[in-house]
Amino acid sequence: MPTMLRVEGFRFFFFSNELQEPPHVHVERGDGYAKLWLDPIILAYSERLTRAELRRLRELTAEHEGLFLEQWHAYFGR
Fold first, then answer.
1. The whole model's pTM is what?
2. Residue 26: which H helix or E strand, with range?
3. Contact yes or no for 58/45 (Cβ under 8 A)
């Protein structure tokens, strides 16, 4: 599972077997977890993250969306 970014205690990553899904990121912080679709950014689901953490997570995802999409497409070749 390639890690794309670590910032503010969040780890943004994707699983290498998810080519069949549209671009997205998984995020971990402590025991919390979330999945966000990219382009547009939509929260797919989350567990054990506060509203403040989810808000910051969306902000960070928007800030780094270009990087995430670039890394996704480079890895999966599309």
1. 0.92
2. strand 24-29
3. no
Which run of H or E residues covers position 69?
Answer: helix 65-76
Tokens of 74: 């480079």
Contact 39, 29 (CB under 8 A): no
Residue 44, Cα to own-chain centre: how many angstroms?
10
Identify whether 2 is preceded by a cis peptide bond (ω within 30 of 0): no
Task: Please provide the distance, in angstroms rounded to a whole number, between the alpha carbons at the two ends of the chain.
Answer: 18
Find the helix or strand (DSSP H, E) in which 12 lies.
strand 10-13
Q: Which tokens go with 57?
A: 């997570």
Residues of the chain whose pLDDT is less than 70?
A: 78
Strand, helix or coil at 9? coil
